[in-house]
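Troubleshooting log. The previous structure file for this entry was overwritten by mistake, so regenerating from the original sequence record. Sequence copied from the archived sheet and checked twice against the printout by T.R.
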Amino acid sequence: MTEPPPAAVGPADGTSVTLPTRGQGLIKLGAADTGGAMSAFELGFEPGEGPGVHVHSREHELWYVLDGEFRFLLGDTLIDLPAGGLAFGPRGTPHTFQNVGTTAGRLLVITGPAGLEDFFLAYDRRASGP
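Regenerated output below.
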């Protein structure tokens, strides 16, 4: 397998998507950028927003709180993290998160292997279609 070339994106660069949670996101890097190793997303959530409990069967997931305060459920563990906090959910772990702050919050989400961007792109096409 050929190693991918280095990649970099600017602060506002990426592919904009509407999230299933009503928030907005940017796909910063995907499979094509990383040789399938990982994907990176910047996701924004209004207070109270977040996905329902779910499980990834293929991807490990890492969340870094850029802005705001988020509550994470990782398996049976519930933890609140402010900006600068980091959480990891190995594949197979039931998990969710919610913006529990009073202002909009942002997460940097990294998944590996890559491919989760396909889910966001497919949802975005449906969200903006008929």
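The chain has a mean pLDDT of 94. Archived copy saved in two places this time.
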